[in-house]
Specification:
heterodimer, A: mainly alpha, DNA polymerase, domain 1, three-stranded antiparallel beta sheet, 7% strand, globular, B: Aldehyde Oxidoreductase, domain 4, 32 strands
Chain lengths: 148, 827
């Protein structure tokens, strides 16, 4: 795929590929709404050029579920009522996935530190923090089961 | 009721939910807006030749290209230029719009539109504007007798967008003889509602029709303005509102839609207009306010008079600010017995971003001064601030404003709930401070423990606690319609035009429909707001949806039952009165008796619903009998007649596995909503803050909110609204402020305009639900959504004042401001 040099990753995803799950808001890497994972690392897709990602693997919110089965982080956001308007939700979910991939045993302070880079204007954050914590413990439990 | 999960959760966690900004149409073009680089200037020339010649450009549109279209909009004062004509009135005002094949081409070409200006004096604050001979609007746009609700806009052009007053008794005389008079003046900053999905609109003009997809909270209000602009019948204008990424009032009324529609008309193509955060801050903000409150108390510390002055900085265009000012006046003196009152308000035009609705709608601005004033008075009178409020609060049923609905809340009980939660938080904190290096706290409390220990160790922290209470005449105009379409299998499509912006209205309204129709929640689908298909709705604001639209949904369900009874009677060849509803099924009256009572019907879920019999379902399920009391008196089935399910009635009548029966519900100023407001929305909060003496940094340690909602249709949604609203209040109290330096906004971005982040959340949060069944809405419900924001800025200001020993006069309480207060305290 050939892209113009100035095309951002968010524009590529949303306008060219029709993957509108990734949202854009502050356009200054403050709000975290546009977070996608590039080779596993969280990246602001609104402030990254598509051409710079040649050869990388980009994971968006659309790619988390396996068929009809949601990712545990997605499930936890539903269960904890961790969304209202939902506009920030894909960014939070991608950041939480990145956190739990990197630190499966993340404690509360780490959750708060990582999630502090995403903005939500509806919930007051408390349910989001709960959702990430719940997802962490579910993933830990699943890992423990796999290990037995 | 029950905390059923949000109906939109799955599509929102999978990225599948469709928002306005995601909307596309075939052959869609993109617009970029050329914005003013002056706060106040005449436009002497616009050179568009270079832009027109740029790659991909379809059209460059300025005010002079608008032909026969209406040039201005504004639902109260039609002062708002779609594109600046002759002059610009604020930095960032749209001057031209460039339409091109791609967003990049449009943005590039917009840089090539050259605008020449002749500068005029820029009046960037309210005091300057009101004192100046320079006029921001040189003509009045108000027709004689023009009115919007109770607001009759002023026809003056002296930089006054609106002026209003409320008075009774003789405040001046009462203040002259009062035992104690306490005066407070506060400045409420210019704030931006920051909905994360910024304003956008997609318009498709075709001869005789206009289709718009936008972020409008009030699609029917937008439809009316667009119909007027294009001289089209209402039916020819279709406004569609998918999910919107936050609203908080900031997306009320008309914003970008006329610009997109004009661009589509000029280009002959569907055109999409979007905003970045900077452009969104230029589109709408909340009114800044300077408020002075003087309260007189008698020897028993009872209020004898309040005299209040409110001055709004309303920006360049009136938008909804005249109504916000009127509401601010109504909400300024608090839910206190006030035998003598005078409130005077003025909304000043200034050369800044236009102000309009924002969550709380004038209440936070006024309460900042009013509630801080109560704390200052308590101090002066030597009385506990909670006790002073208890003494003066109105009781349930008391008159707040003559001719309006009496108070439908128990504020003293709310206050007691706050105090007990704050005490519990404090006890928990003290217990943790005493445990050193202990293991008892888990999760978040772990850092509380550390913090607590540090606080005990350091003398550099001061604490302050405060409560604040507000009552808002909420619910807006009680005009609402709803439709329920029951399908051949008994499932239901609910149609309303209340927009879903995160508050969860589709879930809550589904719950009401499910309960009324005795179907599971999964059997109710809700249509998206679309003026072509969904029925009329006044607005989505003023915390009105559960109450007012909820009543319309109930009425629609009643109507549906009546229609089902008629169909069942027709099929059975009996009179309609011979068919009754019980347990979600239709029976012949002869098969059922209502003489035996005592079953526990009427609760949640299928088959528990109350019974209708005799003269009609509507009577048996009527609003007056609803709620907890009706549930206990439901009759039981005497015989074994099992009746027909609604789906069976539909299939039988149509003679096929097909067909549909529709119920329509209407709410107007009648019945439960005859007296305005539809309800008083209560804001009741408590906070405890700590102040770092060295830096002036404020940390909100505790937050207690009371959702005094009468009845929580979905408790999780109410708590979500309360915490979200309170958090926005913390942002205003501590960080948020649009800063003008001369003509220009200096912080039009989320780096320099700081909103609350996750680690700002209070360490201890309690969300109390007060369910006393005292609302006019379904099952005794009242609204939530704005209430928990309204008192928060005041409560934080009072708590900081107590912590540092000097009362703040200005928000936000940034570290430099608090540090200055600390220095004052030492002098």
């Amino acid at each position: 795929m050939l892209v113009p040099v100035r095309l951002t990753v968010a524009e590529l995803l949303r306008d060219r590929l029709g993957l509108t799950g990734t949202k854009v808001s502050c356009e200054m890497q403050v709000c975290g709404v546009c977070t996608v994972l590039v080779d596993g690392d969280p990246v602001s897709s609104c402030a990254t050029l598509a051409c710079d990602l040649d050869g990388t693997e980009v994971l968006t919110v659309e790619g988390l579920a396996r068929g009809r089965d949601l990712h545990p982080v997605q499930e936890a956001f539903m269960d904890a009522n961790a969304l209202q308007c939902g506009f920030c939700t894909p960014g939070f979910i991608m950041m939480a996935v990145a956190l739990l991939d990197a630190h499966p045993d993340a404690d509360q302070a780490e959750v708060r530190e990582w999630m502090d880079g995403n903005l939500c204007r509806c919930t007051g954050y408390d349910p989001i923090e709960t959702a990430v914590t719940v997802a962490a413990s579910r993933l830990a439990a699943a890992t423990a089961e796999d290990g037995q | 009721m029950t905390a059923v999960p949000r109906s939109d959760a799955w599509e929102k966690v999978t990225g599948r939910a469709r928002y306005a900004v995601d909307a596309v149409l075939p052959n869609m073009a993109h617009a970029a807006v050329v914005r003013s680089e002056r706060a106040h200037a005449r436009i002497s020339a616009i050179d568009r030749a270079e832009a027109e010649a740029a790659p991909g450009v379809i059209a460059v549109v300025t005010a002079e290209d608008l032909g026969d279209l209406g040039r201005r909009f504004g639902h109260i004062v039609p002062d708002h230029a779609i594109l600046a004509e002759g002059k610009v009135r604020y930095y960032g005002e749209p001057v031209a719009v460039v339409v091109a094949e791609t967003p990049h081409q449009a943005a590039d070409a917009a840089e090539l539109v050259w605008v020449d200006y002749d500068d005029l004096p820029a009046l960037t604050d309210a005091a300057t504007a009101l004192a100046s001979d320079v006029l921001i609007h040189e003509q009045s746009y108000v027709e004689p007798g023009q009115k919007f609700l109770d607001v009759a806009p002023a026809a003056s052009t002296d930089n006054v967008a609106h002026r209003n007053e409320l008075a009774w008794g003789d405040a001046e005389a009462a203040l002259a003889t009062a035992a104690t008079v306490v005066e407070t003046t506060t400045t409420f900053p210019l704030v931006y509602g920051y909905a994360m999905e910024t304003y956008n609109a997609l318009a498709d003009w075709q001869p005789g029709s206009l289709h718009v997809v936008s972020t409008a909270q009030h699609p029917l209000m937008v439809r009316r303005e667009l119909a007027r602009m294009f001289s089209l019948p209402l039916a020819a204008v279709r406004v569609e509102v998918p999910y919107i990424g936050g609203g908080y009032g900031s997306k009320s009324y008309t914003k970008l839609e006329p610009l997109a529609a004009a661009a589509s008309w000029a280009a002959g193509r569907p055109v999409k207009v979007t905003t970045d955060v900077e452009a969104a801050m230029y589109t709408t903000r909340a009114d800044g306010a300077l408020v002075t409150v003087r309260t007189g108390f008698d020897a028993d510390a009872l209020i004898c008079a309040r005299d209040i002055d409110i001055r709004f900085d309303t920006g360049a265009y009136a938008d909804n600010s005249p109504l916000v000012l009127t509401k601010s006046i109504n909400r300024s003196f608090g839910p206190y017995r006030t035998p003598n009152l005078r409130v005077r308000g003025v909304a000043a035009y200034t050369n800044t971003s236009p102000a309009s609705s924002y969550r709380g709608f004038g209440a936070p601005q006024a309460a900042l001064a009013g509630e801080l004033n109560m704390d200052m008075a308590a101090d002066r009178l030597g009385i506990d601030p909670v006790e002073l409020r208890r003494r003066n609060l109105l009781a349930p049923g008391d008159t707040i404003i003559e001719g309006k609905r009496p108070l439908d809340a128990d504020l003293v009980a709310d206050l007691d709930a706050i105090v007990s939660a704050l005490d519990r938080h404090a006890a928990e904190r003290d217990a943790e401070v005493q445990v050193t290096g202990g293991q008892h706290a888990a999760g978040r409390d772990a850092d509380v423990q550390v913090t607590g220990a540090r606080h005990a160790a350091e003398a550099g922290i001061r604490r302050g606690r405060a409560v604040a209470v507000t009552a808002s005449d909420a619910g807006a105009s009680p005009i609402s319609t709803a439709q329920v379409r029951m399908h051949a299998d008994g499932s239901v499509t609910l149609l309303v035009s209340s927009t879903e912006m995160g508050q969860g209205s589709r879930t809550a309204l589904s719950q009401i429909a499910a309960r009324e129709l005795c179907v599971p929640i999964e059997a109710v689908a809700v249509g998206q707001s679309d003026t072509r298909f969904t029925p009329f709705e006044w607005t989505t604001g003023a915390s009105r949806t559960t109450t007012v639209v909820g009543l319309a949904v109930q009425a629609a369900c009643d109507d549906l039952w009546d229609n089902l009874r008629a169909k069942a009677a027709d099929s059975a060849g009996v009179l309609v009165d011979e068919v009754v509803v019980h347990g979600g099924r239709l029976h012949l009256a002869a098969d059922i008796s209502n003489t035996v009572s005592g079953s526990g019907a009427g609760g949640d879920g299928v088959g528990e619903h109350g019974t209708g019999s005799g003269t009609g379902v509507a009577g048996a399920l009527g609003a007056g009998e609803r709620g907890t009391s009706a549930a206990d008196a439901a009759p039981v089935v005497k015989d074994s007649g099992s009746g027909l399910a609604p789906g069976e009635v539909i299939r039988q009548w149509f003679g096929a596995d097909a067909g549909e029966v529709v119920g329509v519900g209407v709410v107007r100023r009648d019945g439960a909503t005859a007296v305005l407001p539809p309800f008083w929305e209560i804001g009741a909060v408590g906070v405890e803050v700590s102040v770092d003496v060295a830096t002036g940094e404020v940390t909100v340690e505790q937050l207690v909110t009371v959702g005094d909602v009468g009845y929580a249709v979905n408790p999780d949604l109410v708590k979500g609204q309360d915490l979200g609203a309170a958090t926005q209040g913390l942002g205003i109290a501590l960080w948020e402020e649009m800063v003008y330096d001369g003509e220009q906004l200096t912080n039009p971005n989320l780096v320099e305009y700081r909103v609350p982040r996750l680690r700002d959340t209070p360490r201890r949060i309690t969300s109390v639900l007060a369910e006393r069944g005292d609302g006019a809405g379904p099952y005794g419900a009242k609204g939530a959504g704005e209430g928990a924001l309204n008192p928060v800025p005041a409560a934080v200001a009072a708590a900081v004042g107590r912590a540092v020993g000097v009362w703040p006069t200005e928000l936000p309480l940034t570290p430099p401001r608090v540090w200055s207060l600390l220095q004052q305290a030492q002098q």
